[in-house]
TrEMBL record:
<dbReference type="Pfam" id="PF02906">
    <property type="entry name" value="Fe_hyd_lg_C"/>
</dbReference>
<comment type="similarity">
    <text>Belongs to the NARF family.</text>
</comment>
<dbReference type="InterPro" id="IPR050340">
    <property type="entry name" value="Cytosolic_Fe-S_CAF"/>
</dbReference>
<feature type="domain" description="Iron hydrogenase large subunit C-terminal">
    <location>
        <begin position="3"/>
        <end position="139"/>
    </location>
</feature>
<protein>
    <recommendedName>
        <fullName>Iron hydrogenase large subunit C-terminal domain-containing protein</fullName>
    </recommendedName>
</protein>
<dbReference type="InterPro" id="IPR009016">
    <property type="entry name" value="Fe_hydrogenase"/>
</dbReference>
<dbReference type="InterPro" id="IPR004108">
    <property type="entry name" value="Fe_hydrogenase_lsu_C"/>
</dbReference>
Length: 152
């Protein structure tokens, strides 16, 4: 325990993609867990950052000096409500292209909808997912094709 508290190189690094676990660790066992928690952003936050910077630049040929990540809307479809909590945490704020912390340009994730909420929405709107999937198999979306050409 003493070795862990002095942050020796062999100490564990605690990480989780589950925002519920992170919240639990902070609130219940914070004094023990926080010193060992990874500071790496979640995949959801990293994706938002990439979409609002790299993909924005590639897809819209944005000049790095003219970029406006706050104009790009990043919506995540996630299996858990806790991902909504993760999206509004302060760690979800991105900085400008020079990474100057005091010039915030926006959040990495603008909205999160749970998968079952999306399914309910489709059902209420009379959207047949199976039919859409069949249509998608016949011909890929031009947006996806352009994205693959530019990014890959």
């Amino acid at each position: 325990m003493k070795k862990m508290l002095t942050k020796q190189p062999s100490t564990p690094v605690l990480c989780s993609e589950c925002p519920g676990w992170v919240c639990y660790a902070e609130k219940v066992v914070g004094d023990v867990s926080i010193p060992f928690m990874s500071e790496i952003k979640s995949p959801q936050q990293i994706q938002g950052n990439l979409i609002k910077t790299q993909a924005n630049r590639k897809l819209f040929q944005a000049d790095p000096d003219q970029e406006a990540p706050e104009k790009v809307v990043h919506i995540c479809v996630m299996p858990c409500y806790d991902k909504k909590l993760e999206a509004v945490r302060p760690a979800g704020v991105i900085n400008n292209i020079n990474d100057i912390a005091d010039e915030k340009l926006g959040v990495e994730v603008d909205a999160v909808i749970a998968t079952h909420e999306l399914a309910d929405l489709f059902q209420k709107r009379g959207i047949d997912i199976k039919q859409l999937l069949e249509e998608e198999k016949k011909e890929e979306s031009k947006i996806i094709q352009n994205f693959e050409k530019d990014i890959c």
